[in-house]
Write the structure tokens for this entry.
Amino acid sequence: MGESIMEQVEAIIAPVITEQGLELVDVEYVKEGAHWYLRIYIDKEGGVDIDDCTNVSHLVSEVLDKHDPIAQAYMLEVSSPGLERPLKKDEDFERFTGKLVRVLTKEVYQGYKEFTGYLVGLIEDDIVLEYEKERMAIPRAIVDKANLTFEF
């Protein structure tokens, strides 16, 4: 079985983004209405600006045109992951330890599908949060999404 479009795109664009001193945070390939969108989220220490996004858009467009992993027409969007960036890689969970996060699960876990708390980190294969001095270990296998959440 071959790689998914997302895996192919990530493999093609990651080196280009890394060469610019940026981090590839996430890639989405979604259909909205009649149009397909390839969304690439990038970041760096101190955040990205419009020039970073424009530069990456041009570079990624060139390399994707060369390798052509996507058959149909799509719109390319490059942006910052925003304040509520997704946490996907092990490094994300290490880097954002102590930050407020929101975790959504694919199924009900201990009576809930949504958890918010301060990230303790990854322990074995659980995402560990602390809220009001209680710790909750959520199995990563049932996590649908994990994001930083903005504190007011």
